[in-house]
Amino acid sequence: MHALSSRATRAPAALGARSTPSCLVGPSPLLLLAPAPAAGARHHRRDLPGRVRSASREEALRSLEQFSAGVAAATATAASPSASPPPAAPADDAAAGGLRALTADTFWPFLREEAGDSLVVVDFYTQWCGPCKLIYPKLVALADALAPRGVLFAKADCNAEFKAVGKALNIRVAPTFHLYRRGVKVAEMTGAHVDRLQALVEEQLGGGAAADGTAAAAV
User: Fold this and answer.
1) Which residues, including other chains, have CB under 8 Å from residue 72's CB and lie 6 or more apart?
2) Going by C-beta distance under 8 Å and a sequence separation of 6 or more, which residues neighbour residue 136?
3) Number of compact structural domains in the chain
4) Distance from first CA to last CA of the chain, Å, rounded?
5) Is 158 part of the annotated catalytic residue set?
6) Domain containing residue 184: CATH number
7) What pTM, to 2 d.p., does this model score?
8) How far apart are CA 213 and CA 78, in angstroms?
């Protein structure tokens, strides 16, 4: 009985021993199948953020140093006395091979003083005048041809700034051409006719007959 009892008593213990390892004691079978982490894995994961932060800080410092160097270089270039200023625009078309532009302030001083005894042809025009634009290249060519003979060409824009002078000169149409000597008007014509203008100039120079033009645009 005791032996049976002993066997009966030991049986549950043996049954319990068979069921205990998978439930209460030791790791789960799934955990037993999982590969063990490397010995230094936890150390690597613990150190990684620190290294990332260190690398990011170094990159930020390098970027800041490069930016500071660029700003310093740009400032030095701007402050350098050797930096060339932008070229100034010519005062009028004469600097580019065209006709000299006269304003209300320079009109009479040029005719009475600067031009001397030369015959001066003044082209009175407007920005919106079609015939004025068409004749202008021919005027430049005529001025070049007559320059060796002492003839000067100039132009005056009959805009608001020149209105008082234009009114005093009785400019009513564009283009209008006046010929001057020492500030005194000696001839005039209207219309975009280069051949007639040339004949008028030749008459003042001592040859040819004057002829008035007719085609003109109202000022």
Assistant:
1) none
2) 98, 99, 123, 125
3) 1
4) 144
5) no
6) 3.40.30.10
7) 0.56
8) 57
The phi and psi torsions of 152 (rounded to 5 degrees) equal: -110, 140
Per-residue pLDDT reduced to its tens digit, 172-211: 999 999 999 999 999 999 999 999 999 999 999 996 544 4
Residue 123 lies in a domain: yes
Q: Residue 78: inside a domain, yes or no? A: no
Which amino acid makes up residue 130?
G
Token pair for 26: 């030791």
What is the pLDDT, as a whole number, of residue 63?
73
| Residue 163 located in a structural domain | yes
Task: Return contacts of 171-174, CB within 8 angstroms, 24+ apart.
Answer: 171/124, 171/219, 172/218, 172/219, 173/216, 173/217, 173/218, 173/219, 174/124, 174/125, 174/126, 174/129, 174/131, 174/132, 174/216, 174/217, 174/218, 174/219
pLDDT at 55: 60
Catalytic residue among 99, 119, 122, 129: 129
The pLDDT score that the predictor gives to residue 71 is: 66
Residues lower than pLDDT 70 in the chain: 1-55, 71, 74-97, 207-219
Determine which one of 99, 115, 122, 132 is catalytic: 132
